[in-house]
Fold:
Amino acid sequence: MMIPTVDMADCVLCEMCIQLCPTVFRLNSVGYIEVIELESYPSEDVNEVIKHCPKKCITWTTG
Ligand code: SF4
Structure:
């Protein structure tokens, strides 16, 4: 399965991903972006987020 992954080394916590796709991205308890564990991910929505992430730090990885 393809899973969205955030490279926290580059993420600037702009929260654009959360605004665009709150079913997939959220802030975790220590204030970092977290990908919510789902059975499958909405590829069109995630691709839209990938396009808009200002740091281009979201990618698909194989889970
Ligand atoms: S859109 Fe990109 S830079 Fe902004 S919080 Fe999400 S992962 Fe981080």
